[in-house]
Amino acid sequence: MTNFPTLFSPLKVGSLTLKNRLMSAPMYMHDTSAEGYLEKDRIAFYERLAKGGVAVVCLGESLVHSATGNNHGRVFRLDDPGSLPSLITCTDAIHRYNALASVEILHPGRRADPLFNKEGKVYGPSGGMCHYGDSAHEITELDEEMIEIIVNAFGDAAEMAQLGGCDMVMVHGGHGWLLSQFLSPNTNKRTDRFGGSIENRARILVMVAENIRKKCGPDFPIDFRISGDDLVEGGTTLEDSIELAKILEDKIDMLHVSAATFDDRQASIRMFPTMFYPRGINAHLAEAIKKHVKIPVVTVGGFNEPEHMERLLGENRVDGIALGRALMADPLLPEKARTGREDDIVYCLRCNDCVSARFVPYVKYSLVVSHCPVNPWHGLDIKRFYGKVPRGNQKVLVAGGGPAGMQAALGAAECGHQVILCEKDDSLGGALRYAWHPEFKKDIRRYVEVLSRRLERSDKIEVRLNTAVTPELVKEIAPDALIVAIGAEPIMLNIPGADDPRVIRSIDIHREDVQIGDRVVIIGGGLIGCEEGIDLAKTHGKDVTILEMQDRLASDSTYIHYISMLRQIEQLDNLEVKLNHTCTAIGKEGVTCKDQEGREKVFPADTIIMAVGMKALKDEAKSLGGLAPTVIPVGDCVKPAKITPAILSGYFAGYNLQRL
Questions:
Q1: Per residue in 156-213, pLDDT tens?
Q2: Which residues is 17 bridged to in the sheet?
Q3: Where in the sequence is the domain holding 397, given as residue range(s)?
Q4: In Å, how far are 382, 410, 474, 481, 551 from 420, measured between CA atoms?
Q5: With the CA atoms of 246, 252, 253 and 258 taken in that order, what torsion angle do they form, in degrees rounded to the nearest 10?
Q6: β-strands 22-24, 320-323 pairing
Q7: Cα 386 to Cα 52, 382, 658, distances in angstroms
Q8: What DSSP character marks residue 347?
Q9: In 10 A of CB 238, how many CB atoms?
Q10: How many Cβ atoms are within 10 Å of 206's Cβ, its own excluded?
Q11: Does 218 sit behind a cis peptide bond, omega within 30 degrees of 0 on the bond before it?
Q12: Which CATH number does the domain housing residue 651 bear?
C-alpha cells in the first residue's frame, strides 16, 4: 500500500511497462573521460538514482555526430563503439534495481562549440550568426546530404544505445538544439521541404523517428523531448508543439514536455526552474498537448512534493513526472514516497548551485564537481555506495543547532557515536530561521523540519534547547569530541546614525515585533539584500531601494540564481537598485550615499535594513578550544558563507570523527 496510488501505478510505454510514473530527467553526461566514455563516478550516480526507485533512469546529453555536433568537448559519444563497455556497465547497474535505462541523444546544431567541431564549422537549419554564451559564431546551412547524414547518425546512436543495454531512447527535440532549431521560425528560414509549414519544419524529426524505428525495431520505445513553448517571440509556440505531437504520435511511444530555448540568453532560469517559479511550471504545456495524442505525455520542471505529483496524475492531466534536481537533493525520494516515509524527503531548494557550477560558456570555468546544499553526499556516490562506514563509540558534544550543527550530530550518530546537541535558542535551524520566510524559500523551512525529525528519531542523539555551550558545560559533559557550530552575527556599519531606530538587521526583518515601513532602503546588495528586497517589493508591496557599493549585485550568488534575481528585479517597478553607492550616514531624511564621482544623494526611508554581511563568532569559538581531546569548528563560525559549506563541513566533521 502507498499514499500515492497513481504515482506508483504502472505505465505502458510502447512494448514496455514502467513500474511507476516517476523517471529521472536526463542529467550529467558532460565531463566524461578524455575519450568520451562514462567513468565510475558517473555510473555510480545513475546506479544511485535507480536504487532510489524511479522507473526509468535517463542518461543525459549524448552526441550522435561528434564531427559536426559537439557542444561541451568531453561529452558521451554514441558515434564511437568504444563507448559501449562503459555504457553496458552503467545500464547493468541500473537494471540491478529493477529500473529501466534510457539515454538522451542530440545534435546541438548551431549551438555547437566551433572549438570541438571538425574544421571549426557549426551547422544549423539556416545560415547567420548564433550566440553561444557571451560570444557568437557563424552558422553553415545544412544541405540535404548533411541532413541525411545526421538523421542516420541519430538512428545509429539509438542502435548503439540498444546494444549498450538501454531499454529505450530519448531524442532531444527541444531547448534550441538542432531538431528544435528546425521547428522554430526564428532559426529556420529555409524555403525547401524543410522550411515554411509546420509539416516541413517537423520533417527532420519524423525522419529521425523513422530511422530509429527501422534500425531498432518496433519493440524499442522512442521518447521525444520537446519544448512545449519556446517562450520567445518568433519561436515555436504551444500550437506548433501540439501539431508536432500529432505528426509524431504514430512514430514514437512517449513525449517529454519541457519549455524554453537557448535562443533566449536567460533560458536557463526556465529550463532549470528557479525558486521564483511555481513548482511544476511546465505541467500546463504537457496537459495541453496530452489532449491531442494517445501516447503517454510526461512533464518536468521543478517538482518536489509527491502530493502535487499524485494530484496531477490522478486528474489525468499528465501521464508521468520527470525529476532532475529533486533527485540530486534526495535520490531516495521515490522510495520514501512509496513506502510512507514522505516526511523524510529533503526537497530541492532550486538554488541551482548544482547546474551553475558547470554551466559553460556562461560561466568562465566549469568546476566539474558540483555540490548540493541539502545533500552532503551529492557527487560522492562511489564513496556512499562502496565505502566503509566508519564505526565509532565516542561521546560527542555539538555546540549550535544551525545547519552545520544539526548535520554534524546526524553524521556522528550515523557512525555510532552518542551525541548531545546544545542550542542556545528555543528552536533549531540557526541562520536558516531568518531565511525561510519569503514564499520562494519555503523549502528551507521544510529542510530544517526534516533534519529536526531525524534528530528526534535517532536513539543516539539528545537535543538540549535553551542551552548555551560554555567552558563549564563542556567540562561537565566531558566529551571525547566537541564540534563547534555557533555561527555568525550580522555586521553593522560604523557610520553616523547607525543607531537610528529605523535601522534593523537583516536577520530581524521577519520578527513579529518588527514593523516595516512603506519606503525601505536596504544597505547591501548581496544575496540576502536582493532576496529580501524582492520579497518586500513583490509580496508586501513596499517601495524598495537596494544600495550596493560594488559594481554588481549578489557577487556571492551562483550564475543561474543570479540572472533569475535580475529578471525579478527588472519586473518590479517598486524596486530600484543603485550600484557603486557607498553609504556614509543615516539621518532624519534617510540614507546618505556617495556615488563613484563623489556626489552625495539622500534616499528617503521609513525602514533601513543592514544587509552588509556576517561576522564569524571566532572569539566565542576560540574560547571552547582545547576543552576536549578533539575540537572541530565548522560552519559560519569559521567563515560566513552560503548554506553548502556549512552543511559539508558540519556533516563530515561528525561522520569522520573516529578514524582508527
A1: 999 999 999 999 999 999 999 999 999 999 999 999 999 999 999 999 999 999 999 9
A2: 12
A3: 391-490+616-655
A4: 30, 11, 11, 11, 45
A5: -70
A6: parallel
A7: 16, 6, 19
A8: P
A9: 18
A10: 17
A11: no
A12: 3.40.50.720
Q: Where are the alpha helices (DSSP H) in 272-400?
A: 283-290, 306-314, 325-329, 333-338, 353-356, 381-386
pLDDT of 358 reads: 76
Joined together, the cell numbers standing for residue 383 give 564513496
Are 125 and 145 within one domain? yes
- In total, how many domains does the chain have? 3
Q: What is the DSSP letter of 146?
A: H
CATH, residue 549: 3.50.50.60
Same structural domain for residues 235 and 322?
Answer: yes
Are 520 and 485 within one domain?
no
Q: Which residues contact 393 (CB under 8 A, 6 or more apart)?
A: 416, 417, 418, 658
Upper half-sphere CA count for residue 346 (Cβ side, 13 Å): 21
Cα–Cα dist 377/396, whole Å: 22
Lateral strand order in the sheet of 128-132: 123-124, 135-141, 128-132
Task: Using the CB atoms, write b or e for 54-86: b if 16+ within 10 Å.
Answer: bbbbbbbbbbbbbebbbbbebbbbbbeeebbeb
- In this structure, are 539 and 481 located in the same domain? no
Q: What is the pLDDT of residues 481-491, one digit of tens each?
A: 999 999 999 99
Domain of 185, CATH number, reads: 3.20.20.70
| pLDDT recorded at residue 73 | 84
Between the alpha carbon of residue 381 and those of residues 203, 407, 413, 601, the distances in Å are 42, 18, 20, 54
- pTM of the predicted model over 0.85: yes
**Cα–Cα distance, 216 to 224 (Å, whole number):** 15
